[in-house]
Design brief:
about 10% strand; single chain; 32 helices; globular; alpha+beta; four-stranded mixed beta sheet; about 850 residues
């Protein structure tokens, strides 16, 4: 203990304490035992119910679930990949803080580590960590429950720290940190954020390559690349199971290429263009980086009792009680941006934007150009459909770009690059030997530009924006709103912009004042850095509280049991006829719903990576059949729903919040024999043929499976029977009796990567029928059929993941031990 210099340790210990205190003050309801209410987590609980129940009952993983979209792999829902032992470090790094406090602490810690790796003063690094962590988007995503996204974002900075250390020839520590933090980032399981981070890393490598070429340091550059390649390989190997499974599965999902030839202009080798660009950030909306409410804030923001709308309502004789009721409920009127809806703006912080501009003026070399390029790229890609030539180019030519939706998410790049350049500017300024006059001129220009723009927006808001939205016409017609009301909405949007624009200008001027005092040595660096951190916190803390606050928390019981059974659910649950059938719930939006999956096996569901063929069946057949059912009140014209074993359809009962379960008498059951086959030459013919067949007697089989049905001569005996004996997510067991053998269709979703079929415990071939189902040609007699989900990717991947992660952890322990021993040896 005598050899430990606590004075040197003080800023690092203070950093941890400051980060914990800020986090727990912000999330104070956690101290009362409450939990955050997160819509996607409520959905997650519904869609993962079968998987979690199976794990609790058997101790094994359900790698497939029938609870959503007829059936799909569980890889991206709730599978535990226990082979990656590096994941245990995450609990250590988050200090065991309750969710989401642990992730926010990681935001702080990661950026703190990055600035230290760049040689920044620890006190400056604390302020920088606050600036990065409180970017509004990083908090807003908790409201929806995008926990994996937030977790992955938290590891961007420390991975970059490892890369920079490696490029600075600290090969062992840099490579090790890169491998560990990248492993943790990948394990956090949001591939889209990791993909966008790759843009940041590749841009950094590009500018370092140019620098190495100019300085004739190419050998050390390529040595660093080699070390980083090995680090990345270990990060991938430790997460091999999830990555391999996701890659394998992705080709069959809506993120893979469709085999249909319709809508060619909208299709890519991944997501359709309109789906991928649905959430595009407006070009003008980008000003929210500087002024948070310049586009009205959240889609669900409440109208203030002091708003222009309330004033107009009073002026037009609306009773006070009506005004109070109206202004106490969330309203979609204030947000007027182009996105379908939003939980809040991307606000990077007025002081951060000011510091970023300052960085453009005083930071020199490849770091500036790297961070500027990343920022511009981030904005341009976020504009999506509003800059389609660029978006088209990236979707067509940049590998994997078209696999991801919500292009506005690319703004996470700017949320990383802008504060980093800003705090590199402060690092440069604090240690600069340049004339104070030059530094002050750069400081003055930066403040004048950023504060000036904010003040100009406040003074002449209509010079910048229209404050009108295409959605306004819908609001006006849907709610039959008078013209004076819509005008008041527009005036309220202007008022909100003015308030926040003035607010941003004030914070910029205060921040510039602190930095000016530092330049002229009126404040010691440590005090200037801490004061700047306080100002940034004072700016961003209350903005984030507009969207995530104490009302976002509730009792744990609400999150543990998020769904309440209706009378229809109870009726269906009492049906014990067989162990497996499906339910279509028309009392909700069936394809944006997880509540049904909590109780039943669902035709619908809630997931961003459903099987593409199933999505095409939804669009081409299930939607029309739902409309037919609504018109006719029966299932005589719903062949696809019938072949999907839809035993019940939940419908509204007429009374408010009342529902009933409609029993489907035409359901085909778990499996059946057919007497004939209709061949299809391609996917277009295959899906179209379903409109013109009776699936209980005819199966549509694609040309690629012709060899599988060569032994089938057609026809079926009236005595042929096939029955599902037992069901579990990974294992389906049937027995059948057939006089002459025949072709059996199973009401189970076809997926070729992992399902194996057995007849009397001997492997047997199966194939796809009716576009999405499984089928087999079965021999005559009485036999057992079994389908088991046994993906090699899981079995082999977990072994490789375990071996790689153990090796990586042992390397980390060994290197840490050597470092500690050398440190004590020097002090001795």
């Amino acid at each position: 203990m005598k050899n430990i210099d606590f004075k040197k340790l003080l800023p690092y210990l203070a950093a941890v304490a400051i980060f914990v205190v800020i986090t727990m003050v912000y999330f104070s309801p956690l101290l009362e035992g409450k939990k955050m209410v997160q819509s996607d987590i409520i959905h997650f609980k519904g869609m993962s119910k079968e998987i979690i129940d199976y794990r609790a009952k058997t101790g094994q993983e359900a790698l497939w679930t029938n609870s959503m979209f007829g059936g799909m792999p569980a890889y991206q829902i709730s599978v535990n990949y226990s082979g990656n032992m590096v994941g245990y470090l995450d609990n250590l790094l988050t200090l065991g803080l309750p969710h989401p406090a642990g992730i926010v602490f990681l935001y702080f810690l990661g950026f703190f580590i990055l600035l230290l790796a760049l040689g920044a003063d620890p006190w400056l690094s604390i302020a920088g960590a606050i600036a990065f962590a409180f970017s509004s988007y990083f908090f807003i995503i908790f409201e929806a429950g995008h926990n994996s996204k937030a977790h992955t974002i938290a590891y961007m900075a420390p991975v970059m720290a490892g890369i920079i250390l490696t490029m600075n020839r600290k090969y062992l520590w840099g490579g090790l940190l890169t491998a560990i933090f990248l492993s943790l980032q990948i394990k956090a399981n949001h591939p889209q954020i990791t993909y966008y981070f790759a843009f940041i890393a590749l841009l950094y490598g590009f500018f370092r390559l140019i620098q190495a070429f100019r300085e004739k340091q190419l050998p050390s550059f390529f040595t660093s690349v080699g070390v980083l390649s090995i680090a990345a390989l270990f990060a991938v190997l430790t997460n091999l199971t999830s990555l391999w499974a996701t890659y394998e599965y992705g080709k069959y999902t809506i993120r893979g290429k469709s085999e249909l030839t319709t809508e060619k202009e909208n299709r890519t080798s991944g997501l359709d263009k309109d789906y991928a660009t649905q959430w595009s950030y407006g070009i003008g909306e980008s000003m929210t980086l500087l002024v948070p409410d310049c586009y009205g804030g959240s889609s669900s923001r409440e109208l203030s009792p002091n708003s222009k709308v309330a004033e107009a309502m009073r002026a037009n004789g609306v009773p006070d009680e009506t005004i109070r009721q109206y202004t106490s409920q969330p309203s979609g009127f204030l947000y007027w941006g182009p996105e379908p809806f939003t939980s809040g703006p991307v606000y990077i912080g007025a002081i951060v934007v000011f510091l970023f501009v300052l960085g453009l003026l005083i930071v020199k070399g490849p770091m500036k150009w790297w961070l500027l390029t990343g920022t511009v790229l981030s904005l341009v890609l976020a504009w999506g459909r509003y800059l389609m030539p660029v978006t088209d180019f990236f979707m067509q030519y940049v590998p994997m770009y078209n696999k991801f939706r919500a292009v506005s998410m690319t703004l996470v790049i700017a949320e990383f690059t802008m504060p980093l350049l800003g705090f590199l500017a402060l690092k440069e300024l604090a240690g600069s030997t340049r004339a104070r006059r030059d530094l002050f001129r750069s400081l003055w220009i930066s403040a004048a530009v950023t504060a000036g723009v904010a003040l100009l927006m406040a003074l002449l808001p209509e010079m910048f924006f229209t404050f009108s939205s295409s959605k306004d016409i819908t609001y006006e017609q849907q709610y039959q709103l008078p013209s004076w009301f819509m005008q008041a909405i527009r005036e309220e949007r202007i008022r909100l912009l003015r308030l926040d624009a003035i607010r941003s200008a004030i914070f910029i001027l205060l921040g510039a004042g602190v930095i000016g005092a530092l330049v002229f040595k009126k404040l010691k660096p440590v005090y200037a850095f801490l004061l700047l951190g306080v100002l940034i916190l004072a700016d961003m803390f209350p903005v984030n509280k507009r969207y995530i606050n104490n009302s976002s928390f509730s009792s744990p019981s609400r999150m543990e049991t998020p769904y309440e059974a209706t009378s229809a659910d109870e009726q269906i649950l009492n049906d014990k006829q067989d162990p497996d059938f499906r339910v279509l719930n028309l009392a909700v939006d069936p394809f944006l719903d997880a509540s049904t999956s909590w109780f039943h096996k669902s035709i619908g569901g809630y997931h961003g990576a459903k099987l593409r063929r199933y999505q095409e069946i939804i669009e081409g057949h299930i939607y029309p059949e739902i409309r037919s059912f609504a018109r006719r009140g029966n299932t005589d014209s719903t062949p696809v729903l019938n072949m999907l074993n839809t035993r019940y359809i939940i419908v509204p009962a007429g009374k408010e919040n009342q529902v009933m379960a409609f029993p489907n008498q035409k359901v085909l059951g778990n499996a059946w024999f057919v007497g004939a086959v209709r061949n299809a030459g391609n996917a277009d013919e295959e899906i179209a043929a379903l409109k013109n067949i009776r699936p209980d007697s005819v199966a549509v089989v694609a040309k690629e499976f012709e060899s599988q049905i060569s032994g089938f001569r057609g026809g079926k005996d009236s005595s042929d029977r096939i029955v599902l004996d037992s069901y579990s997510p990974n294992d389906l067991q049937y027995h059948y009796r057939s006089a002459n053998g025949g072709l059996a269709v199973f009401s189970e979703i076809y997926y070729p990567k992992g399902w194996n079929a057995y007849v009397d415990d001997k492997p047997a071939p199966y194939f796809r029928a009716n576009y999405i189902l499984r089928a087999m040609v079965l021999p005559a007699g009485e036999h057992k059929v079994r389908f088991r989900f046994e993906p090699a990717v899981f079995r082999l991947g977990e072994k490789i993941s375990l071996a790689s992660s153990v090796f990586l952890l042992l390397a980390a322990l060994a290197l840490t031990g050597i470092g500690v021993r050398r440190s004590f040896a020097k002090k001795a």
